[in-house]
Description:
alpha/beta, Rossmann fold, eight-stranded mixed sheet, two-stranded antiparallel sheet, 30 helices, 10 strands, globular, disordered N terminus
Amino acid sequence: MGSKANCVLLSVSLTLYRLIVEFHEPTASRLLSVARHAAGLMRLKFISRGFRFASGNLSKVMSFSEPPAKASLCCEETQEGAPPTYAMYEALKDSCQNNATYFQPDDSENGQRLYQGFMTLLDHIDTVWPLVDHVRKVAPQYDFDAKSPGNGYRSFVSVVDSCVLYGLKLSRQVSTGRDALLFRKGHFVKEVESCGQLLASLGTCLHHLHTLLTWAPPGELFPTEPHTPEELFAQADTINQYCFYGRCLGFQFLPSMRGILKGISICMAGFSEAYYCQGNLISSVWTGGQYLIDPEMRARRIVNISQSASIEFCKAFWFLAESEIMKRVPSLMSSTVAVNKLITIPPEPLTVTTAEGKETTVLPPTVHIGLQGLNVRLISVNKRVGMGSDRSSSIPPADGVLFHCHGGGFVAQSSKSHETYLRDWAAKLNVPILSVDYSLAPQAPFPRALEEVFYAYCWMLNNFKAIGTTGKRIVFAGDSAGANLVASCTLKILNSGLRRPEGLFLAYAPLNVSFVPSPARLLCLMDPILPFGFMMRCLKAYASPNSSGKGDKHGSQTAIMSATTPPDSNGFLKVSPSQEGISEGPSSFEEVSPSDLAELQAHKSGSERRKSSDTTISAASLQSEHTATGITPPEDKSQKDQESEASSTLVGETPLLEESEQTAEQKKRMKSRISEAATGFMGAMQSRLAYITGSNAIVRPTQEELSVRSNLDALIARSPSDEFIFSVPRDPYLSPYWADDRLLKMFPPVRILSVHLDPCLDDCVMFAKKLKKLGNTVSIEVLEGLPHGFLNFSLMAKEANEGSKLCIERIKQLLDLEQVAPSSENDL
């Protein structure tokens, strides 16, 4: 009898469900109300189970994946094994309608807010669907080719699809849990309202995309006629950026990246407290903890930081990757290398041979900050013949060498903070890597960094033996700002008639450093790594230094350094003079005599003198980085072990000890490194605490600084166009995309790697198209669900590590070009 009763009740519930779906909303609501009041508590329980059973079966038929939508597939009519994309939107509408019907009779405040939230979602879906459908249909016309789908229009379609998937998952969670005794209405109210705000903001972005489509013909991602970003943002309502950094933060990225990005955002918000609180440690720690549990507070803070904080804040936050703690991570977790040394190139003229066999003189950079020693980092998995003063190595020089420039928005970071992937590259490629620590903006704006990279390349041409290579094949590699620099350096090399590299590898490169609007650039309005305001300030500091002071005043430079950058001893924000661009010498090379050069080297500041002593290239010696700073290795170790331990690496050459003995040595070194890391952490924390609590000597904040702090705590919403208050020169050395076709045609083979969610994606696609049109060998590959700068997370996320491995494969192709088929122009 029980089973028959259950069958009858199930049949009744299914019939009622069909009636609710078939009738219009008021009738459906009345039927549901009658069913609730007429049935007893037990019968209602069985009916609810019947509803969930029916909904569960429907969900199985209309199942959708949890990860974000793939941009490479989002513009297809149908996906194999999945329903058409419109079904996903219909499923969300059905689920929202079901939940709205359920909560409409609920008279509680949260019940009515849930009802309104789901009804609002329904309205936004109806608004967004025709907009995204049009973009979905035309997006494939803007790809590089059929084998490499990717452009800003595709990216936005995938972002909207990811938002719909996120909303569908949320709505189904409410559907399955709303009858539970402990259902948290208050929690889901905020989640549903946040999702509605997110979809509304994406709808505004889609209006902007429709405007961009009218500004350029099919296939062109940049407008063909002059149009300004102000003109674009004036076409629709102001975009609400807060919803992108609150509860929905990271919805468009892979699940493995969401936690990382959320952690970075919390750190950014908390760091702003320490940066602006002027020593109030307890307040900053307490408020920083609130950002973990209050997503709305975090979103408000991040957006307002992006709009109000100065370039000095950006530099200070990104330089946390240079702290003593973070510096030890690569040596503990990355591949072991035998050589990891800093070399200081003295500022003296270089004589190099051109491609035609003629000799020419290259002067050291002098622009903006005068003569400075230039640091380059040499990383190699093996110690080869010719490296350093030790001649015991029998490993011959490698045929190839990788010339690398790091990213950091032109304003921050160094080769040290990019060791996380450079060590792995050196191990897998088995060639030396030479990474340039160029000077940073705003103290050293364009073209200082480019001139230093070009100077380092000329030095490398004369010193192949010292870095362990024959120089048979040279490949340039760079990520983000570093990719821009190696592309610009290639142009400078071609103009100078010097030997060009055998290949270029560019990762998520900004190749059009100007404010030409494009669909991908709108992605920075929701990017946790590269927020819109941060990107604007970095470009302003590097490309338009004369106007950067207008919007980025933060007191005098002395006050900035004393208030934001603690002494070297604290271990947190060490910034070298060469990185900050602090000039210690004359302003031009023409004024310097050989004796002046010697005096210049002898009278550098402490940090500069320390770095100069790392390696004297005239003596062709490669000292340890730590030895140069005064840390002496134990005396009972061999020279080889001293150099290995001092550079925080394990020996990567053929073992000289017995296996068991070597294992013991390695364990001993590991313990030593862990102990060092713990000691460094405690010392850094103590120094930082002393610095913050003893802040009486710090210069008091200016009135403008106090107003910035108040802005960070206020809910302000202004148009992103407010950031466009400066002009950028159309210089091909600044934006390689604008280079002359004659030079671009001479480019070596190029491999480009980007991500669908990168604000610089359109730069990469359009640059690749331009090279392809000129007949160059070029390929581009676009990865799913990863953020700009993913290489720095290769130790934290599996997909980021896979992306780094793909970089290695592409660089291998460039290092060994004779094995690449001639037809590989567009193949990967």
